[in-house]
Design goal:
It contains eleven helices and eight strands. By secondary structure, it is an alpha/beta fold. The longest helix has 27 residues.
Length: 321
Amino acid sequence: MIRERCGVLMVSLGTPETPTPRAVKRYLTKFLSDKRVVNMPRALWLPLLYSVILPRRSLQVAKRYQSIWMDEGSPLLVYSRRQRQALAASLPNVTVELAMNYGRPTLPQAVSRLFAQEITRLVILPLYPQYSCSTSAAIWDAVARILTGYRRLPSITFIRDYAAHPAYIAALAASVKHEFSRYGKPDRLIISFHGIPQRYVEEGDDYPKRCDVTRQALAAVLDYPPERIIMTFQSHFGRDPWLQPATDETMKSLPAVGVQHVQVICPGFAADCLETLEEIQVQSKKIFERAGGSTFHYIPALNDDEAHIDLLRQLVTAELP
């Protein structure tokens, strides 16, 4: 029997190479040009993107990245590399590569390295616990375009999401319980997911349902009143209506109803990044405290935690022979 050669392609969103306006502009150009991310007529969207949005947001976002940049680089890339290294160590007979859909290491580079190993089976692992057309489906599109350049293709498995996987929920619960033990149980536990336009949901994206699956599963294993858990959506962009309730507006409103202590977890992010370390840990905390709240704690992403790596290993091995 011929022994299979297996490979894993871990894919995350992407990040600028440096926290400078020029690098941020390159990153945002690729990210915001993807039709899966911004589904508007190109004749309307692209002139607006290049003339207004990129010049303005590149400067703003660069400053935000500068505030969270690590000695090793962008947090998302630093933690993603650690995840790849740890997953590869747990799968000694499997080739594991990391790619960013909008950045480096690039998808074409990662696919090329995998195919150079003459793999016969490929597992594509988007690092998004909850499926969305703007994230997981964008990876599917990008990989499919790359594969048109290859004559020989391996068997391919695409892990759509893992919103309720027992190991994922257990890892989330462990991180929440750890924070509870450090700071006490909060008045409210906020579960903040990245938002998407409401129109995408109306057109068939089941993302909010997948987020709620995670919320329900996590609430079921916590020793914490489920009615004190609030699911919100962050990172609103543009003028279209987005999923509600919004994380920032929720932070503004809670102190007025007597909530003084909140803890926030962002289960949709497999690694800490701009949206968690700056938007939540810094900006949301300011919003809450300015509204009269007294105690705010951000619960870190799973990053390269041992339980998280074991989850990723389980996801991959379930698809291998």
